[in-house]
Amino acid sequence: xxxxxxxxxxxxxxxxxxLAPRAIFVRLAAGLIFFFTPGILKYIEPHMxxxxxxxxxxxxxxxxxxxxxxxxxxCGFLVLIGYxxxxxxxxx
Length: 92
What we know:
The protein has helices at about 20-45, 50-55, 60-80. The protein is mainly α. The protein has a domain at about 20-85. The longest helix is centred in the middle third of the chain and has 25 residues, at about 20-45. It is elongated and about 45 Å long.
């Protein structure tokens, strides 16, 4: 009764050229927020990292704070380079 047509999928729709600067701005804002604010501050500021995780009650707060900080830095970097745009950025 309901047939999906692959040609109507959002991946096949053309994106307007005027949206590209907006997407870059949003990507930069989100990437920098995750990269700098929570990610690097978990290493620099003890109240944002180890002490915060110890206060919340996480087991092994040293490991947890550094693991989460590394994950946030890595994901922020991926957003900055456009990995969230899918594999189109990394196509060869």
